[in-house]
Amino acid sequence: MAEKILLVTTTSGFVPQFEMNNVKYLLSLGYEIHYASNYNTPIYGNDNSRLDETDIIRHQIDFVRSPFRLSNIKLLRDLVKLMKEEQFVLIHCHTPMGGVLGRLAACISKCGVVMYTVHGFHFYQGAPLMNRLMYKTMEWLLAHVTDVLVTINEEDYQAALKFKLKKGGSVFYTPGIGIDCKRFSTIENIRQKIRSQYQLQSDDFVLITCGELIKRKNHVAILKALTYIKDYHIKLILCGSGVLEQDIRHKIREYGLEECIFMIGYCYNIQEHLKAADCFVFPSYQEGLPVALMEAMTSGLPVIASKIRGNVDLIVPEKGGFLVEPKDIKGFADSILKLKENNELRQQMGCFNSEKIQQFDVEIVKKKMKDIYQFAIAKTVK
Hints:
The protein is of the alpha/beta class. Helix content is 43%, strand content 18%. The protein has 2 domains: 4-178 and 362-380, Glycogen Phosphorylase B (Rossmann fold, 3-Layer(aba) Sandwich), CATH 3.40.50; 181-359, Glycogen Phosphorylase B (Rossmann fold, 3-Layer(aba) Sandwich), CATH 3.40.50. Strand 6 (148-151), helix 5 (154-160) and strand 7 (170-173) form a beta-alpha-beta unit. Helix 1 (14-28) packs across helix 15 (362-380), helix 2 (71-86) packs across helix 3 (96-109) and helix 7 (191-197) crosses helix 10. The two termini are 17 Å apart. The relative contact order is 0.11. The model has no long low-confidence stretch (mean pLDDT 95). This is Glycosyl transferase family 1.
């Protein structure tokens, strides 16, 4: 009988969106892959259909994102029960609550080697004091029951090195989850088709952003910047879905931007939309190493992004774009205008990003993750 590996994430769209290369590798080694998540709250799409025909065995756990909900006690019990029943040799956790409850359950059940990929610690530089006190303490404690801790940006890697892991454990760095540079570079002759779809004029300057519609993504900063500029030839394609959709639509009406902004929901052909744009904007308060930003770089776009962890790993100021403090509305507005008025600068920055992003190519990440999994798997041998 094949040995079993469990993946744990809070929401069910995570694995098909970001982890399928790792799943394929583990399947190729002969492992049976199980996936514990909340399938009632898919993200990166409207359903769980992308998990069909993947050979992944699913387990419903009613995860919530808040660490303060009493329901987390029942969720922990459910995870412990699952782990005791299935006897997984390796448990790989992702997302904040998946990482907390998954590791606690593994410790209680005494089941398997414990691996956690950090997609962005909550105690990042500039985080509220409460985040730094509570989440850093939580991660310090959980590190003691963690065998393998994987980080995806430099700030988190340096923070993780200060933790004491389980005896024989180790901290690793990998440059994100990887980006398929070839997939984006082969898209051609699509720019005008997409622009026509939105009835954009030849002199329209098109911004694009992509991300879940939640507070952390700070989409309202770009809305305010466009209101500050008052140039109706600057358009924004806003890709993403989420709990703040109606709030953002209300802001668009309030600011009088209905003719300038296209809210298109989750975008299944993002590479084509990126090719239709002139600049990528990304005003988040918090990131790990953002795939959306990497996709924009691969598409040869200049970038205006918030000056935060993850973004600073990717964007070289004045070479690949501009980095702006998340609340600096004038800074975003001025950067938009600089790029709108200088086509040569846009081309230079876009070319620079196309070269820079090669360091984060998926083939590089695949090799690093294979080495990390081999380290973890070696620890499963008793």
